[in-house]
């Protein structure tokens, strides 16, 4: 077992081994920058000019459990160990980070394989499910076999006070300022974990909004706390609510609008859901039981 420091506390983590087709194994985090240079011609009414541009990378990422391929996602090849852990947790392949014993990331011309070893009980459950995804950017239900399977059962999260207007405003500004990959090339979404004061604790970026959230949830699962809330640069789909709730986080804040199914699921989970966050405007779509109970006590 390796160990990695994510905060002042240590959490036992699987070792991460990175292999490539032209070099031996090495221990560490993927070194890719998530963007590549490309020559473009920029034009305006007066003519055109050749420039070097940064373009977001999109690679096939295969999630392989105990030697069996489970899903292939199109994603940005950054923070892949976080992606592996977050995806495994939010898809309920494992119940805790400790059930993921080892991660090996193999890079080839075709993309990346994330080979994971999970404990026997989790492996048996996964074999029973036999759910095979063909992932597309931001697509969360590809491969499901029935309409019933699209209706998720979401857990009720612990009650949490709605963040104030000022805290949300601070959080969204910090998230935007820390989107370094988006600043370089656009085309990517961000998800951030924010403390009660509105300060970003962790941030992950990806071409897919669900991928960015999985990466973030993997990163914060390595911590011993989920005290805080999540902000995303995208809309809030039902699966964003579902993934957030699976990790016991009570508040999701989106730069764009939620879908109706997302609002309904947030009500079921008794979450705080704020969307359409713009300068001078925040729309509250759902409020936690804590807010409702506090207001009822005042009546």
What do you see in this structure?
27% of the residues lie in helices and 36% in strands. It is α/β, with parallel strands linked by helices and 299 residues long. It folds into 2 domains: 2-26 and 58-150, Ubiquitin-like (UB roll) (Roll); 165-298, Cytidine Deaminase, domain 2, CATH 3.40.140. The longest helix has 13 residues, at 165-177.
Notable features of this structure?
globular; 17 strands; 27% helix; 36% strand; Cytidine Deaminase, domain 2; six-stranded mixed beta sheet; Ubiquitin-like (UB roll); disordered N terminus; 299 residues; alpha/beta
* Structural class label: alpha/beta
Q: State the separation between the terminal residues, measured CA to CA.
A: 54 Å
How many domains? The number is 2
By CATH reckoning, the class of the largest domain would read Alpha Beta
Number of continuous helical runs: 8
**Strand order within the widest beta sheet:** 4-3-9-10-7-8-11
Give the full name of the CATH homologous superfamily of the largest domain.
Answer: Cytidine Deaminase, domain 2
Oligomerization state = single chain
DSSP summary, beta strand count: 17
Low-confidence sequence ranges:
1-12, 20-31, 131-138
Beta-strand portion reads: 35-45%
User: What is the N-to-C order of secondary-structure elements (H for helix, E for strand)?
Assistant: EEEEEEEEHEEHEHHEEHEHEHEEH
Give the helix proportion (percent range): 25-40%
Biggest sheet record: 7 strands, mixed
Q: Gyration radius, to the nearest Å? A: 20 Å
């Amino acid at each position: 077992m390796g160990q990695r420091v994510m905060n002042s506390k240590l959490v036992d983590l699987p070792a991460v081994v990175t292999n490539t087709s032209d070099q031996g194994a090495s221990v560490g985090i993927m070194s890719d920058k998530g963007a590549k240079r490309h020559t473009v011609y920029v034009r305006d009414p007066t003519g055109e000019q050749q420039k070097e541009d940064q373009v977001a990378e999109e690679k096939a990422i295969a999630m392989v459990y105990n030697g069996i391929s489970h899903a292939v996602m199109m994603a940005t090849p950054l923070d892949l160990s976080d992606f592996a852990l977050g995806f495994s947790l939010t898809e309920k392949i494992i119940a805790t980070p400790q059930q993921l014993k080892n991660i090996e990331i193999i890079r080839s011309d075709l993309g990346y394989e994330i080979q994971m070893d999970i404990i026997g009980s989790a492996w048996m459950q996964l074999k029973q499910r036999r759910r095979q995804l063909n992932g597309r950017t931001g697509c969360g239900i590809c491969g499901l076999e029935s309409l019933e399977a699209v209706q998720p059962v979401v857990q009720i999260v612990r009650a949490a006070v709605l963040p104030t207007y000022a805290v949300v405003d601070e959080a969204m500004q910090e998230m935007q300022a820390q989107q370094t990959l988006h600043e370089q090339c656009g085309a990517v979404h961000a998800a951030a974990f924010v403390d009660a004061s509105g300060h970003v604790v962790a941030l992950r970026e990806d071409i897919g909004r669900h991928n960015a959230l999985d990466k973030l949830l993997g990163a914060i699962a390595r911590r011993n706390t989920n005290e805080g809330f999540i902000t995303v640069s995208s809309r809030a789909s039902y699966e964003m609510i579902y993934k957030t709730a699976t990790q016991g986080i009570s508040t999701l804040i989106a730069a764009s609008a939620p879908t109706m199914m997302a609002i309904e699921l947030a009500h079921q989970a008794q979450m705080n859901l704020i969307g359409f966050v713009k300068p001078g405007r925040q729309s509250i779509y759902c409020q936690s039981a804590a807010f409702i109970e506090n207001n009822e006590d005042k009546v």
